[in-house]
Structures are given as structure tokens and as C-alpha cells.
């Protein structure tokens, strides 16, 4: 079977390569012609563990191709996956302009029955809108189906998540379309992946419910960490004590500077917006966002106190990506904190193993030195912030770090170090909830 994936970002590229690895013939289409050219030249524009291997394998066996010609890709395909961006628009509403533009273009090029499957995260009701947008631009009446197939991959382990998902959700308006999309995922039957077969609206909502629930766990544990600091409790023991209860689970109970990334903030905001649209306020989700905003401000206040002011302080920052194992800096808490430090007139020296280029795009050059390694970022610093918990920071030579810093003050907002050990080494240590 031939399929098209529209959008070659984190989701589109991983899905395209993954579907090709399932044995399908895949054309990945993007409107960004420079990106398509780079992909055709064999350059992978994002950092994702394991992507290069399946990318090269499937390009070589010609199951994975890249194009900016949507027309010929659509003509060859039975199924078209939409994987374009749905960034936050005004008032927390998702901006659906990319999805709408794809739908209108598809209508122009559809020549016979197609299944249009949405991987992009879109608010409830968008599947029906996609149908309407296509119908209003079709040249002649034609049968087609719209399916919601939300994507749950995590950046940093996207290939693993795509190839071995916890579940596949398929929301369809016809049995035929549901069967066609289910068939695409046939290789996953062998590993007994559960399938949730449902209607469009439910599939769309499952994605938001899942992300909002995970974000809720993070904001919840961050508030608990703040309480721990007040009462002399240790958040790590609280998390472990909670997480061992199978009804709760241990994941997403790690305190930090708040959640970020291109999904959680915008998806929780979108859920709040949907609640308002339908007269059903989502009060928990609204609080989750509020707590998340406060958490970043709290980190900066802690640093300001620890350094007795920010103005003219030199601060080393280790890690800029929104989480380890990705180069994605969208809505990264580390970047947000860097902006606030710069506003406070601090000078920052930053280092990230893979996200330096993206960070430069967001932070610019003023007040910032981009460093070649972790030690260089610590050199001469009045304080050091752990912005992202990359593994390489866990194994640094802390004696050396201390010796190169001007004053050994560590803001370990990812709690990667043992406070007692750091204090013994002579650091002033600030963690979260300990
Ligand atoms: N990034 C994640 O971890 C993740 C996980 C699950 C779901 N999602 C959702 O998947 C969707 C895509 O996310 P992403 O992070 O891959 O986005 P992205 O911004 O990395 O990529 C989007 C791509 O779509 C392309 N594009 C935009 N308009 C186009 C058009 N009209 N025709 C063809 N291509 C077009 C862009 O050039 C870009 O390459 C979003 O809705 C997001 O919420 C993302």
C-alpha cells in the first residue's frame, strides 16, 4: 500500500520512516522546500535516537521518499496522514491553519476514494471540519473518509514509541476506513498492541485527556515538592512512596522547573479552551497551567535569592532542550528561565549536547556565551543551573566543576545530584523539594 504523510516534523518524519519500516511505500510531503531538499540529500533535520538507521534503511530500499509535490503523492496513495503543526493560537486556541490548508489542497488533488487520517493533535470537532473543508473545495463529488489517529510518541524515544506503542487509537466515521487504517498497523498485532477503535470525537479527546493527565501529574508533584521544602520532607521519598501504589504509578512524579515542549503547554491550554467552548470549564487543567507558570518563576526567585541578586551575575546553564535526548527547545523551561535571567541582567554561559542551534534561534546572542562543553559553561560562574537532565551531566567531575566556578552554587532544578554529596564537596546546593 502507498501512503502519504503530510508534514515532516518530529511526528511526520518519525511516522513516515516507521510506516516505511512496516513495509508500506511512503511519500513524506512538506511545504518547506528547503527541508524537503535536505531530506532528499539524506540530511535528517531533527535529532532523534534510532531515526537515522530506519531513515537510511528505508530510503535505500526506496520505500521512503520525500517530495513537495502533494498532488502526485496523493494520487498514488490510499491513505493520507496529516502531521502538520497545530501551534497555540490566540487565547489558547489551537491554530488550525496548517491543517485547513492541507485539507483544501487535498480536495484539489483527490481523484478517487481516500482516507484522510489526522495524526496532528486537533481539538474535538476538527475531523468533522476537515470533512467540510475538503467538501467545499472538491472539484466533483467524491467518496472519502476522515479518521482520527492521534500520535502519542515522545520526543527522545519517538522511534521506540512508534514501533512499540502502548496503544493505537483509531477514531473513524466508517468501518471501511477504520479497517484500512487498522491494517496499516498490522505489524503491531504481533506484539499484541491494544487497539482502541472508536468514533472521531472520542479519538480526538483521548489525546488531550492523556496529555492533560500527564501534565497534571507533573504540576501535582511540583506543588508537593514545594510543600516538602516548607515542612522538611523529601519529595523523592514522597514520589517513591506514592508511585509504588499501582493505582498511581511511578512515572511523571519527578519534580522540576515545570513542563514544557511543543505539546503539553499548548494541549492543556487547548483542553481549557474546549471546556469553555462547550460550557464545561476544565478547572483542573486550568490550575495545572497556572501551577506550571508559577514553577518557572519560583526557580528564578530561588536563583535570585541564592545569588543575592541576578544583575551582573554570571550563570552557567547546562541543558537547553525541553527534555533530554532531543534537540527540541520549543517551550523549554530552561530557555524560559534563561530569558528571565537575562531580563534580570545576568550574563549566561550555556551548553547543551545537541540543542545549541535551536537555542540560538530562541535566545539570540545578547548576554549569552555559547560554550563547547559543560566545564566551559561553568567556568568563572557565580552559579550553575541544571536546565535539562542529560545523562552526561550526571557523570561530570564535580571537583573540576567546583574548581573552575567563581562560587560553587548549584541550582539542581532537575534533582540529578545527591544533595548530601554535593554539600560534602563544598557546593551550596539548591534542589527541588529536598
Ligand atoms: N512533537 C511531538 O512530540 C508530538 C507528539 C504527538 C503529537 N504531536 C502533534 O503532531 C503535530 C505535528 O507536531 P510536530 O512537532 O511534528 O510539528 P513540527 O512543527 O515539527 O512539523 C510540522 C511540519 O509540517 C510542515 N507543514 C506546515 N504546513 C504544511 C502544509 N500546508 N503542507 C505540508 N507541510 C506543512 C512544516 O513545514 C513542518 O515541517 C502537532 O499537532 C503536534 O501537537 C506532536
Secondary structure layout plus pairing:
Elements: E1 2-6, H1 10-21, E2 25-29, H2 33-40, H3 51-60, E3 64-67, H4 70-76, E4 79-82, H5 97-109, E5 114-118, H6 126-137, E6 144-148, H7 158-163, E7 168-172, H8 175-184, E8 195-198, H9 200-231, H10 235-243, H11 264-277, H12 283-306, E9 314-318, H13 333-343, E10 347-351, H14 356-363, E11 368-370, H15 374-378, E12 383-386, H16 391-394, H17 398-404, E13 409-411, H18 419-424, E14 428-430
Parallel strand pairs: 1-2, 1-4, 2-3, 4-5, 5-6, 7-8, 9-10, 9-12, 10-11, 12-13, 13-14
Antiparallel strand pairs: 6-7
Helix pairs in contact: 1-3, 4-5, 5-6, 9-11, 9-12, 11-12, 12-13
Bound molecules: nicotinamide-adenine-dinucleotide.
The site of nicotinamide-adenine-dinucleotide (NAD) has 27 residues, from helix 1 and helix 5.
Summarize the structure.
This protein has helices at residues 10-21, 33-40, 51-60, 70-76, 97-109, 126-137, 158-163, 175-184, 200-231, 235-243, 264-277, 283-306, 333-343, 356-363, 374-378, 391-394, 398-404, 419-424, and strands at 2-6, 25-29, 64-67, 79-82, 114-118, 144-148, 168-172, 195-198, 314-318, 347-351, 368-370, 383-386, 409-411, 428-430.
Query: Are any ligands bound, and if so which?
Result: nicotinamide-adenine-dinucleotide
Low-confidence residue ranges: none
Q: How many strands appear in the DSSP assignment?
A: 14
Shape, per Cα inertia axes: globular
How many domains is the backbone divided into?
2
Amino acid at each position: 500500500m502507498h501512503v502519504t504523510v503530510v508534514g515532516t516534523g518530529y511526528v511526520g518524519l518519525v511516522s513516515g520512516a516507521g510506516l516505511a519500516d512496516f513495509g508500506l511505500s511512503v511519500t513524506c510531503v512538506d511545504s518547506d522546500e528547503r527541508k524537503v531538499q535536505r531530506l532528499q540529500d539524506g540530511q535528517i533535520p531533527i535529532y532523534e535516537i534510532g531515526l537515522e538507521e530506519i531513515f537510511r534503511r528505508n530510503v535505500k530500499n526506496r520505500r521512503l521518499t520525500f517530495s513537495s509535490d502533494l498532488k502526485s503523492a496523493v494520487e498514488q496513495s490510499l491513505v493520507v496522514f496529516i502531521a502538520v503543526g497545530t501551534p497555540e493560537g490566540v487565547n489558547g486556541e489551537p491554530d488550525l491553519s496548517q491543517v485547513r490548508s492541507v485539507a483544501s489542497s487535498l480536495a484539489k488533488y483527490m481523484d478517487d476514494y481516500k482516507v484522510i487520517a489526522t495524526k496532528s493533535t486537533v481539538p474535538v470537532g476538527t475531523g468533522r471540519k476537515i470533512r467540510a473543508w475538503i467538501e467545499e473545495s472538491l472539484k466533483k463529488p467524491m467518496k472519502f473518509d476522515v479518521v482520527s489517529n492521534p500520535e502519542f510518541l515522545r520526543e527522545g524515544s519517538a522511534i521506540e514509541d512508534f514501533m512499540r506503542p502502548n496503544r493505537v487509537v483509531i477514531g473513524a466515521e466508517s468501518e471501511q476506513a477504520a479497517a484500512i487504517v487498522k491494517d496499516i498497523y498490522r505489524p503491531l498485532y504481533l506484539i499484541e498492541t491494544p487497539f482502541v477503535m472508536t468514533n472521531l470525537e472520542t479519538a480526538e479527546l483521548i489525546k488531550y485527556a492523556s496529555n492533560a493527565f500527564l501534565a497534571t501529574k507533573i504540576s501535582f508533584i511540583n506543588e508537593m515538592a514545594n510543600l516538602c521544602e516548607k515542612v522538611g520532607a523529601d519529595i523523592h521519598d514522597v514520589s517513591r512512596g506514592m508511585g509504588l501504589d499501582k493505582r498511581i504509578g511511578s512515572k511523571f512524579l519527578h519534580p522540576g522547573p515545570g513542563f514544557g515542549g511543543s505539546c503539553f503547554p499548548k494541549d492543556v491550554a487547548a483542553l481549557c479552551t474546549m471546556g469553555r467552548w462547550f460550557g464545561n470549564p476544565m478547572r483542573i487543567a486550568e490550575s495545572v497551567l497556572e501551577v506550571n507558570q508559577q514553577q518557572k518563576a519560583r526557580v528564578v526567585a530561588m536563583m535570585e535569592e541564592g545569588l543575592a541578586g541576578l544583575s551582573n551575575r554570571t550563570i552557567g546553564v547546562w541543558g537547553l532542550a525541553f527534555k533530554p535526548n532531543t534537540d527540541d527547545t520549543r517551550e523549554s523551561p530552561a530557555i524560559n528561565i534563561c530569558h528571565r535571567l537575562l531580563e534580570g541582567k545576568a550574563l549566561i554561559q550555556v551548553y547543551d549536547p545537541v540543542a545549541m542551534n535551536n537555542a540560538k534561534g530562541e535566545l539570540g546572542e545578547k548576554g549569552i556565551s555559547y560554550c563547547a562543553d559543560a566545564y566551559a559553561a561553568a567556568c568563572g560562574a557565580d552559579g550553575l543551573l541544571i536546565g535539562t537532565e542529560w545523562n552526561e551531566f550526571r557523570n561530570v567531575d564535580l571537583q573540576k566543576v567546583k574548581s573552575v566556578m567563581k562560587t560553587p552554587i548549584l541550582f539542581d532544578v532537575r534533582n540529578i545530584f545527591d544533595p548530601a554529596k554535593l554539600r560534602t564537596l563544598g557546593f551550596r546546593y539548591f534542589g527541588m523539594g529536598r
